[in-house]
Write a structure and sequence with these properties.
The protein is α/β, with parallel strands linked by helices. 32% of the residues lie in helices and 26% in strands. Helix 3 crosses helix 6. The model has no long low-confidence stretch (mean pLDDT 97). Flavin-adenine dinucleotide binds next to helix 1, strand 2, helix 2, helix 3 and strand 3.
C-alpha cells in the first residue's frame, strides 16, 4: 500500500473528471484521476459514459445508420444505383467499438502528456485528514491516496423501470442499446427523450419496427413548441411510432420477447410485444460507491451531490461536477464545470454560464437550441420578437437534398438582444455554435443579420432568421 500525496484527486474520468484533471495539471497542480471503467479485456477505459456508452458510440451508430438510409432511400435521386445493399450490423458495432477505443486511448495519452497520474479502480472516501482527504482506490492494485482538494465526477447511470432490471439482452439500458448484435424485428423504447429518439432512429433506419412509449402528453416538452412540432412531423413521416400520454404497466420478459402492458392517452388498455426493449427514462447520479457518509458529504434525495453554483459541496476542499450534480446531464456542461473548478482551485475565476449551454438531439433532422424557448418567454411575460427561416429556401440545403426544418431567432422586443435560437434541420449541431458565440457576446439579431455569411451555406439560414426578426428576409 502506498500513500501518495496529491494537490488534486479527481474521482471519475468522464468528460467532467478527465477535463478537470487536465486543466488542474495545466495550472501546475499535482493531479491524480481515478476511474473504474473497464474495457472488454478488463483494461482501463477512461472517458466515462460519454466515451464508452454515450455521446461517442451513439454518434458512431447514428452516422453508420444514416449512411445506410441514404444509400437505400436517397442515392437514387443523385443518379447513383446501388444493388445488393445490405446492413452488416456486426461491422457497424465493431466500427463503433474502434471509435470508442480511439477516444479511450486519446485520454490515456492526454493524461501522460499533462502528467496526470491515472489510477484504474474504484475511488472512495476513507476519512478527512490534516489538510485534505484520504481516498482509497480498489482495483487491480489497492492504493491509498491523500488529496488536498477532491473533485467528485462520478457521473450517472440509466434509471430502470421499477421492478424491471436491465438484463442487457432483452431489457436494455443505453449500454445494451449500443451493443445490439442483429437488427431486432420489433423494438420498443420507453421514454421519448433524447436517448429514445436517437436510439430509435438508429434501429429504425436499419430496419427495425420501432415503437416509443412516452408518459408525458406533449412531445419534447422542453423544446420550443414550433421546433418540436416540426420534428414530430419528420419522425412520423420516417415511420418512428411515438405514443404520448402513456402509462406503462407490467413488463413481462419471456422467450418470445418482451411484452409491455400500457394504457393509451384515452385510457384504453394496450399491449406492445417486442424483441428488445430499451428503457430510456432518465438517469440517476452515481454516488453509491463513494462512501460519502465517511466524510459527511451531503447528497440530496436523488443521491446527487449537493453543490452551489460554483460546484462547492458542503465540505471544504471537496467539489463535484457533471452528471453527479444538479443541472442538465450533458458532456459539455460537465466539461465546463470541470474547467471552472480546476481554475477556482488554482485561485482563478472560472465561470459557467448556465443560460448558454446548448442542447443537441442528433436525430435526422437534428434539433439544437440555446437560450429561452418561446413558451418560456411567454410564461415570463417577456416582450420579444420572433423570426424564422425555413431550410426549404436555403440553396445549400436544396443542393444537399435536406430541406426539412427551420431556424428560429427570439430577440428582446426593446433591445433586440438575442434571447434564444432554435433549429431543427441539417447540421443544427454545428449551426448552434454561432448562436452560442453571439449570445455570449450579448449580440442583437441585427448583429447577425449584418454579418457576411458564406454562400451557399446552411449558415445563411442563421442570417436570414435574424433578418426575419426585423421582417426583412431576402430569400423567403
Ligand atoms: P460520466 O461520463 O458518467 O463519467 C463518470 C465516470 O466515473 C465513469 O467512468 C464511471 O465509471 C466513473 N466512476 C463512478 N464512480 C466511481 C468511483 N467511485 N470510482 C472511480 N470511478 C468512478 N451528452 C452530450 O453532451 N452529448 C451527447 O451527444 C450525449 N449523448 C449521450 C448518449 C447516451 C446514450 C447517453 C447515456 C448519454 C449521452 N450524453 C450526451 C450525456 C453524457 O454522456 C453525460 O452528460 C456525460 O458523460 C457526463 O459526464 P460526467 O463526467 O459527469 O460522468
Ligand atoms: P430524458 O430525460 O431525455 O428522457 C426521458 C423521457 O422518459 C422523458 O420524456 C420522460 O417523460 C419519459 N419517462 C420517464 N418515465 C417514464 C415512464 N415510466 N414511462 C414512459 N416514459 C417515461 O432521458 P434519457 O433519454 O434517458 O437520456 C438521459 C440523459 O442523457 C438526457 O436527459 C441527456 O441529458 C443525456 N443525453 C444527451 C444526449 C445529447 O445531448 N444528444 C443524447 C442522449 C442522452
Amino acid at each position: 500500500m502506498s500513500n501518495q500525496q496529491f494537490d488534486v484527486i479527481v474521482i471519475g474520468a468522464g468528460p467532467g473528471g478527465y477535463i478537470a484533471a487536465i486543466r488542474a495539471a495545466q495550472l501546475g497542480q499535482k493531479v491524480a484521476c481515478i476511474d473504474e471503467w473497464k474495457n472488454d479485456q478488463g483494461g482501463p477505459a477512461p472517458g466515462g459514459t460519454c466515451t464508452n456508452v454515450g455521446c461517442i458510440p451513439s454518434k458512431a451508430l447514428l452516422q453508420s445508420s444514416e449512411h445506410f438510409e441514404h444509400a437505400s432511400k436517397h442515392f437514387g435521386e443523385h443518379g447513383i444505383a446501388v444493388s445488393g445493399l445490405k446492413m452488416d450490423v456486426a461491422q457497424m458495432v465493431a466500427r463503433k467499438a474502434a471509435v470508442v477505443k480511439q477516444n479511450n486511448d486519446g485520454i490515456l495519452y492526454l493524461f501522460k502528456k499533462n502528467k496526470v497520474s491515472f489510477f484504474h479502480g474504484r475511488g472512495s472516501f476513507v476519512r478527512a485528514v490534516d489538510g485534505g482527504y484520504e481516498i482509497a482506490v480498489k482495483g487491480a492494485k489497492d492504493e491509498t491516496l491523500v488529496g488536498r482538494q477532491i473533485i467528485v465526477a462520478t457521473g450517472s447511470s440509466a434509471r430502470a423501470l421499477p421492478g424491471v432490471p436491465f438484463d442487457e439482452e432483452q431489457v436494455l439500458s443505453n449500454d445494451g442499446a449500443l451493443r445490439i448484435a442483429a437488427v431486432p424485428k420489433r423494438l420498443g423504447l420507453i421514454g421519448s427523450g433524447v436517448i429514445g429518439l436517437e436510439m430509435g432512429s438508429v434501429w429504425r433506419r436499419v430496419g427495425a419496427e420501432v415503437t416509443v412509449l412516452e408518459a408525458l402528453p406533449t412531445f419534447l416538452g422542453a423544446v420550443d413548441e414550433q421546433i418540436a412540432k416540426e420534428a414530430r412531423k419528420a419522425f412520423d413521416k420516417q415511420g418512428l411510432k411515438i405514443e404520448l400520454g402513456v402509462k406503462v404497466g407490467e413488463v413481462k420478459v419471456g422467450k418470445k420477447g418482451v411484452s409491455v402492458a400500457w394504457t393509451d392517452a384515452k385510457g384504453a388498455a394496450q399491449e406492445l410485444v417486442v424483441d428488445k426493449l430499451i428503457v430510456s427514462i432518465g438517469r440517476v447520479p452515481n454516488t453509491t460507491g463513494l462512501n460519502a457518509e465517511a466524510v459527511g458529504l451531503k447528497l440530496d434525495e436523488r443521491g446527487a451531490v449537493v453543490v452551489d453554483d460554483d460546484c462547492r459541496t458542503n465540505l471544504p476542499g471537496v467539489w463535484a461536477v457533471g452528471d453527479v450534480v444538479r443541472g442538465p446531464m450533458l458532456a459539455h456542461k460537465a466539461e465546463e464545470e470541470g474547467v471552472a473548478v480546476a481554475e477556482r482551485i488554482a485561485g482563478q475565476h472560472g465561470h459557467v454560464d448556465f443560460n448558454l449551454i446548448p442542447w443537441v438531439i442528433y436525430t435526422s433532422p437534428e434539433i439544437a437550441w440555446v437560450g429561452k424557448t418561446e413558451q418560456q418567454l411567454k410564461a415570463e411575460g417577456a416582450k420579444y420578437k420572433a423570426g424564422s427561416f425555413p431550410f426549404m429556401a436555403n440553396g445549400r440545403a436544396r443542393a444537399l437534398g435536406d430541406t426539412t426544418g427551420l431556424v428560429k431567432f427570439l430577440a428582446d422586443a426593446a433591445t433586440d438582444e438575442i434571447l434564444g435560437v432554435h433549429i431543427v434541420g441539417p447540421m443544427a449541431s454545428e449551426l448552434i455554435a454561432e448562436a452560442c458565440v453571439a449570445m455570449a457576446f450579448r449580440a442583437s439579431s441585427e448583429d447577425i443579420a449584418r454579418i457576411c455569411h458564406a454562400h451557399p451555406s446552411l449558415g445563411e439560414s442563421m442570417k436570414e432568421a435574424a433578418l426575419a426578426v426585423d421582417k426583412r428576409t431576402l430569400n423567403f
